[in-house]
Design a protein that fits this description.
Elements lengths: L1 E5 L3 H13 L4 E5 L12 H6 L13 H8 L2 E3 L2 E7 L4 E6 L5 E5 L2 E4 L3 E3 L11 E2 L4 H13 L4 E5 L3 H12 L3 E5 L11 H13 L3 E3 L4 E7 L2 E6 L4 E4 L1 E4 L3 E3 L2 H5 L23 E3 L6 E3 L4 E3 L4 H15 L13 E5 L2 E7 L2 H7 L3 E9 L10 E9 L5 E8 L3 H13 L24 H13 L5 E2 L4 H5 L4 E5 L3 H6 L6 E2 L17 E5 L4 H12 L3 E5 L2 H9 L2 H9 L6
Parallel strand pairs: 1-2, 1-7, 2-3, 7-18, 9-16, 10-11, 10-16, 11-12, 26-30, 27-28, 27-29, 29-30
Antiparallel strand pairs: 4-5, 5-6, 8-17, 13-14, 14-15, 19-20, 21-22, 22-25, 23-24, 24-25
Helix pairs in contact: 1-8, 15-16
Bound molecules: flavin-adenine dinucleotide.
Amino acid sequence: MKVVIVGGVAGGASAAARLRRLDETAEIIIFEKSGYISYANCGLPYYVGGIIRDKEALTLQTPQSFYNRFNIKANVNCEVTAIERDQKRVSVKNLITGEIFTESYDKLILSPGALPVVPSFCHGGERVFTLRTVEDAIKLKAFCKEKNVKSAAVIGGGFIGLEIAENLMDTGASVTLFERSDHVLAIVDDLAAAFVHNELRAHGVDLQLKADTLSLKTADGCAELVLSDDRTMRFDMAVVAIGVYPDSSLAVKAGLKTGVKGAIAVNKNMQTSDPDIYAVGDAVEISALPLKNSAVIALAGPANKQGRIAADNIAGINSEYQDTQGASVIKVFSKTVASVGATEKQLKTAGVAYEKIILSAGNHAGYYPGASSMTIQCLYSKDSGLILGTQIVGGDGVDKRIDVLSVAMRVGLKAAALKDLELAYAPPYSSAKDPVNMIGFIADNIEKGIVKQFYYEDLDALKNNADALFIDARTPFEYVRGHADGFINIPLDDMRYRLDEIDKTKTVYVMCQSGLRSYLATRILAQNGYDVYNFAGGYMTYAALKNHEYELKECLGCGMEKR
Ligand code: FAD
């Protein structure tokens, strides 16, 4: 059997290596348009910033090492320009020699990836860059060095935009990040984004939200940017990172079926509408969990898994892709931001009724030095209790919690069942009640009516309710350093002795720093006959969403509460 693979990086290289492990006799040929195979796209921003010093470290294999290990011919600088399905062959152009030739196949795997969106306002030129390939990264890094770049604009606050902004700062440039919407990272909701905004600004990034770029070009030795509010700004260079789109042009030309955003339609076996052609990675349409909507999700994990699945099926092993949850993690300076599943925005759009838990918790026991706080937002179905999505921002330990929640979601755990998970504990790593367990405890309390919650987004309406009484249950010291409008201070430890100050005819809304002390206060009040609600996420959440940057910084230092 002869298998031709288009694209020799995440999905393509995985498919090739798996196929060889399954079939020693197959002829396997890769065509890769760039000069490298099996390179680490995900490491490219860190090469620009200098954390990864050696460009060889970015290339996990060379054509020669791939041939030596797997007996696979990987042809770099070779672009597949057409698929002739009736002849079962592809046309290839050698981009160095200009030679054009054809290659026949029994089975074809397409893994061409995604392309950076270059908007119509972008007129390019030598000072405007995108980042996708090793060549892009080398060019960008060399430019920064040769031209002694002191100022850079990054257009777009997605994964690549944030990573390149941080890494350009690491080169010593000042960076202005322009984002069209009111928050960066579309894969998270307002709360997680608010923490990211603070982190970017705290590290000196000039973050311009709701900044609509009208034009970007190289002019007079600068990258010149014009914004819709008539500002014209000049930088030494600019990177455009406003998203990617599936590179399905070959498939479209060959008449293969496509779906959302023009991505290649595939079945669970990663087979296209032509049974002899498989497609994997960023270029394909998948079903996204938990909503099971058709989507395109550009992540390395799914691409690698899909490559393996395509190879299995070609080798005669039935193997099915089990949908994408979009589990992702990104470093933003000293913060880690991670998410899985649906956002609140997506659930609202889909009309799914959900419950929301916001928890601020320590990454490990507070008494063990170096503990830091993480904020978790977990969304779960009001009807079934199943976990629908989670977002976490913090420092150490964020990646571990998102992975647990991703697995919980994958196996169909209900949020309340998180309380039963047995998770490894010693003081340097966790708490006896891990933050993941805490989500379960809160969900269980909500289910049993032991606690009722209210949220930041409820505050405006509640403020106009004459029957509402607002209590801040923190210490007077914390209260004077910053509190939400309209909240009076009755510290938790005084609550039992000051009940006569709390009007029983009113509905009581309690806030503290993280949500724990206010929860304890609600239990005292509820058992004394009050109708009482706990503020989800505490003052840390309030301050983050209010964008009280100074207060937020202060809060983070004192955000660890004993449990
Ligand atoms: P790719 O790995 O992009 O490979 C496609 C290859 O096909 C390309 O090299 C291209 O040159 C080649 N090609 C295209 N058309 C042709 C043709 N006609 N003929 C021959 N060759 C062709 N994902 C994460 O999960 N975590 C991260 O931290 C992360 N960071 C990233 C950072 C950057 C800067 C970038 C660009 C991506 C990042 N990603 C990350 C995304 C991840 O790299 C992709 O999801 C993954 O590589 C997709 O695999 P793929 O095989 O579909 O495409």
